[in-house]
Amino acid sequence: MEQAFFYYAASGWCSIDGERTLGQAQRVPHSAKNIRINGAFSLMPEFSRAFGCKAGDNMHVEEQNSCYVFGPKSG
């Protein structure tokens, strides 16, 4: 069930996002779709637990390297 949440949340960003040239990257203010999802989800311990990501996996970031913007750890 926990995996279903992440699949659903990512499904809105599913489309082919071609590689950007340097000029395109400088003109488009948003990150590529894969960075928006993979970057955010890899920082979530809940994602790592749901998918069994371990230290060294691409989608696992150690908690001490995570960024907390909201919640009790955001201090």
Ordered list of secondary-structure elements with their pairings:
Layout (H helix, E strand, L loop, with lengths): L1 H10 L10 H6 L5 H10 L2 H7 L24
Average pLDDT number: 82
Alpha-carbon Rg, integer: 14 Å
Uncertain stretches: none
Strand residue content: under 5%
Instruction: Briefly note the structural class of the backbone.
Output: mainly alpha
Compute the number of strand runs.
Answer: 0
Number of helices: 4
Largest sheet composition: none
Polypeptide structure, described:
This protein has 75 residues and is mainly α. It contains four helices and no strands. The chain is globular, with a radius of gyration of 14 Å. The termini are far apart.
List keywords for this structure.
mainly alpha
Summarize the entry for a quick read.
This protein is an all-alpha fold. The chain has helices at 2-11, 22-27, 33-42, 45-51.
